[in-house]
Amino acid sequence: MKYLKKYLPYILVLVLFLSVFGIWYKIYAEDNKNTDYLTVAFLDIGQGDAIFIEAPNGKQMLIDGGPDWKILERLAEVMPFGDKSIDVILATHADMDHIGGLPFVLDDYKITNIIENGIISETTIYKDYQKEILKNKVNKIIARRDMRIILDKEKNIYFDILFPDKDTLELESNDGSIVGKLIYGEKSFMLTGDATIYTENQIQWNENPKILKSEVLKLGHHGSKTSSSILWLEDVDPEIAIISVDKNNRYGHPHQEVLDRLNSLNIPYLTTYEEGSIIFKTDGVELIHIK
Amino acid sequence: MSKKEIIIIFILIAIAVVRFFFFLPEPPDFDSVLEEEVIVVGEVIYPPDVRANSQRITIKPANQETNILVVIPRNSDILYGDIIQVKGILETPENFMTSVGKEFNYKRYLANQDIYFIIKNASAEIISRGNGSKLKAWLYNLRNSFMENIKEVVPPPKSDLANGLILGSRGGFDKEMNEEFISTGTIHIIALSGYNVTIVAEGVMNVLGLIFSQVVSIIFGIFVIFLFIIMTGASSTAIRAGIMATILLFARLTGRTYMAGRALIIAALLMVAYDLRVLVDISFQLSFIATAGVLFLTPKVINWVKFLPMRFKFRELVATTIAATISVLPILLYTTGILSIVSLPTNILILSFIPLTMLFSFIVGVLGFISPVLSLPFGYISHLLLSYILSVIHFFASLPFASVSTRSFPLIITILLYVFLIWWVFRNQE
Lengths: 291, 430
Description:
The structure holds 2 protein chains of 2 kinds.
Chain A (H helix, E strand, L loop, with lengths): L1 H30 L6 E5 L8 E4 L5 E4 L6 H9 L6 E6 L5 H4 L2 H7 L1 E7 L7 H12 L3 E4 L5 E5 L4 E7 L15 E6 L2 E5 L5 H10 L2 H4 L3 E3 L11 H7 L3 E4 L12 H9 L4 E3 H4 L2 E5 L4 E3 L2
Parallel strand pairs in A: 3-4, 4-5, 5-6, 10-11, 11-12, 12-13
Antiparallel strand pairs in A: 1-2, 1-14, 2-3, 7-8, 8-9, 9-10, 14-15
Helix pairs in contact in A: 4-5
Chain B lengths: L2 H20 L14 E8 L4 E2 L3 E8 L5 E7 L9 E9 L4 E2 L5 E2 L1 H6 L3 E14 L5 H20 L4 H10 L7 H9 L10 H16 L4 H18 L4 H19 L5 H15 L7 H23 L9 H22 L2 E3 L2 H9 L2 H14 L4 H27 L4 E3 L5 H16 L4
Parallel strand pairs in B: 4-8
Antiparallel strand pairs in B: 1-3, 1-5, 2-3, 3-4, 5-8, 6-7, 9-10
């Protein structure tokens, strides 16, 4: 008892000191972003998609969550230590390799908004994921063309939804994938989920080719030949294409036809199975490939 | 040995045999429904073992003495003490090949836990909650919240390592990570060992020693050991360590001399008397042999490493590591067929940091009950230490010669090696 009395003031001071440190650390980790750079990371989560976006003001967005819990490891690598919240999740469509990891993310992180294409699936993973959304009281939004997600008002960074342009209930799962374009100044990223040539045609029908032009294109459906038509690649006309894919996957992605199409148009490409997570930064003028 | 000791040993062996033949539950006769879809209602008797993509639940059906293992999808909220209704195909477990092509006796492994049937790809529905022991439910719940607190501030897979170090929890690691642990001979750090039990008991007694008398803190220490063993799933390793630690504390309480070798044999005899099948339980074998190795080989090995500095107990650490490695090597070769070449350097590099890592991770887990803001600074330190451990393991595992494997290592050589070791240890003693 006498030891306790003797040391109690010191212990209290230590606890207070550490709390102050902790609070400031958290503030620092989440708000101190005095940088002009937008980060876009195509995460290496195996066969699937997961793209993490962080605006200069600290707003964060996750597009798809990969097939399983591996997403948690990858997120921890690109997010600040102790940051356990993401402002918006966008699930392009309800396939396992895109939403499989989302229940884990919803469980582990504080998520404010979730954007979906509105197609309901009968799979167990979809039900799990919907259960987690309800449990965590996440605000759900159904994506439609002409919606704009403003990530950084001051720097004018936003994500425009190009597809779906209508009710998607009658569409095939991949056809109904959300397609959107992330724009910051002169640089933009075309992010396509598992969009097929059908989806690409719809978008090309709706939009002026000028709107489609992007510096970075994530190829639809992990480089499958049912996506990325020559016409689409010509209109988007990217400086670099990204293929989010696992080594030796059972679908044979990326298909040789697609690589041939890229080569014929002289579009270089990177794959997540060769590079690991692929990270870009841009200040709206210059595009930097970090890793 | 005195006459009294021989009589006690004889009685314990007799109890073991009688229990083995007359008191262990027989496998039930489910042949008529084997390979068919069944609906079973049973009580969940351990907390679910959550893996990367599934979870394994042991249920005890009503009116049955043995258990059934049920594998269901990962995302479900089944808890210890639930009564659940399970639907799926009833099968008998089958032995399987490990990654190096050695047969793993899965049948026997499960039979030791009174499991003779398994339902894979099952679906489960909760019928009622809170049926098990209140104490166990509380302990499992505490364990779970503690692990969640760590996960709250430390990202995976570091958080999984922290929980493995402190609580021996194995969930969370993927296959590659597990193989890295095995090929570097470091899997023991995430298994619950005697070390965890001792450290918990010592910690509790040190804290209580500040306030209470020695007698009170020792009694409380024994009590905490008991709770900790239940909380971590009562593995044979933990029970072995628990019995030894209890004997040690009794020795302190009564002022007698503690002889670790004797305590080890008493622990082994008691466990065998209770259930003879522990003799073929690999974790019991490993734990028993490694402890014996540390106790009896270290004094010999320490002579080889006299050139090492004594500071920070470094020489002792290296000597115990070598002793433990030598002693478990034959049985590891026999059971797993994997010989880790890098085991010694990896272990020496990480073992010196493990107490500190456990301490900081433990603080994170405890402070998390108050607020993550409070645990965050400690989380940062433990994160650094955990990253260090994982990157050492990752580095050594990635070396091309990290481990070699053999498909057949004969039992007779294993036994001869142990006979030699025992002879070598005791040859100069009277």
